[in-house]
Amino acid sequence: MKILYNLLVFFLSLTVLNAQDNKAQNPIIFADVPDMSVIRVNDSYYMSSTTMHMNPGVPIMKSKDLINWEIINYAYQTLEDDNEKLNLDNDKNDYGRGSWASSLRYHNGIYYISTFSGTTNKTYIFSTKDIEKGPWKRTVLNNSYHDHSIFFDDDGKVYIVWGAGKLQIAELKTDLSDVKEETKKVLIENASAPAGNNIMLQAEGSQLFKIKGKYYLFNIVWPKDGMRTVIIHRADKISGPWEGKVGLQDLGVAQGGLIDTPDGKWFSYLFRDFDGVGRIPYLIPVKWEEDWPILGENGKVPQYLDLPVSKGVIPGIVNSDDFNRKKNEPDLPLVWQWNHNPDNSLWSLKERKGYLRLKTGRTDSSFLQAKNTLTQRTFGPESTGTILMEVSKMKEGDFAGLSLLQKEYGLVGIKVEKDSKKIIMMEVLKDIPTEIESTPLKQGKVYLRAACNFKDKADTGSFFYSLDGKKWNKIGNAIKLPYTLPHFMGYRFGLFNYAEKNVGGFVDFDYFHISDQISKNN
């Protein structure tokens, strides 16, 4: 009997495991996709997010099941073209700023995405009838409305809600060209109050919804010695009075809103700070009790969701690229973003077919000030980026290769010094870029690799090189990948080439290959 019992337990456990294998798991995207705003139009979901100093900016993703997402567009190519911070000019930069949390809406056949910028102190509203192809109409408000939410009410009025702690509201003009100044007022005097008095981060990240005649406002708050917390307010009228409560306090999963499915299920989309990989999205099931959305399972964030299993972030969020383009294909797939504003005269996929060419056009003092670093997200639990690069046309003082980009970056690359080339691994130690190891390079091409381990917040990166693409050699030491607020972004793979002494050199990237595991032959 004992043998039969043990066999029954074994087969039941297999059944449970098989059932779980067919379900989605949190996080739904193990990569940096923060400040999500999500809408459903018929049976399609659309999501916007924050990428700050990266261009093109405000990525837009699409899904049919809330789990498997694909980048389909961006709200803008560059936020502003004549800003020296955004252009990395005169030793200035805009890491961690650019544009922040967006608000995505759909109203009367038109999609709207709004965002705000601490760089320009303006708010930007982009609108289009075709969210996947555009074109976009751009409207600029001469004020930066922090973490705002645009809201189209049933009576035809359009509102904007913004602020931190003290939340404000105003009506927008019908064409969204400006705020009606006379309508500005305080919406909630102290939106943090439901989480107590000892608050480190005041309530912000407003997202406003109207469901079955009631208004619901989602915010994030962070109590001191506590965790990031969801605050929900509700009201029968948009003018109030508003009553608030803690909506979720688990794992620090917070900031977002509500979304429903065509078959009547409800979820809350939120994100979690996960150190070096960035801020990663979660979905939380929602039940309704006495007209309140109740988040989670017994107040907890579930691991499994009653939704289709994820197929992974490749190729929808990140992807390999062999730089081969068909006639009508764009030069760069949407998975790529430039670090700050690019100089489009200094990169090409046409000068040498099947290669990305990065050329130098000015001298730079450091990697973080160099233009035209081309990036993709790293992702968890493990990820690896590999390049093949031809370096025969580099000039004295040139430096090119593959990076893990954040404030405390690491990289492996080729540097030309005294008419000879060497492979260098560098990392930032106490804010100082430091050469850890180097080895001579005697040939015209080289394979480089960067590997990331985000398992259980290990947050380590390692670098490798190969002369034949088969035998790999580790170079330098493993580095820590800490999340820093000055950059406010998860680590990114970055392809770079910049000049320290002479301009006019170039390198050709044959491919960038990405993998969801750390290769066994490293």
The CATH superfamily of the largest domain bears the name Glycosyl hydrolase domain, family 43
Widest beta sheet: strand line-up: 4-24-27-37-29-30-31-32
For the largest beta-sheet, the strand count, sense and barrel status come to:
8 strands, antiparallel
Number of H- or I-type helical stretches? 1
Overall average residue pLDDT: 95
Number of strands: 38
Radius of gyration, CA atoms, in whole angstroms:
24 Å
CATH-scheme architecture of the largest domain: 5 Propeller
Low-confidence stretches: 13-17
Descriptive report:
The protein is mostly beta strands. The chain folds into two domains: 2-305, Glycosyl hydrolase domain, family 43 (Tachylectin-2, Chain A, 5 Propeller), CATH 2.115.10.20; 337-515, Jelly Rolls (Sandwich). Helix content is 4%, strand content 46%. It has one helix and 38 strands. An eight-stranded antiparallel sheet has the order 4-24-27-37-29-30-31-32, with no helix packed on it. The longest helix has 20 residues, at 2-21. It is globular and about 75 Å long.
What distinguishing features does this structure have?
522 residues, Tachylectin-2, Chain A, Jelly Rolls, 1 helix, 46% strand
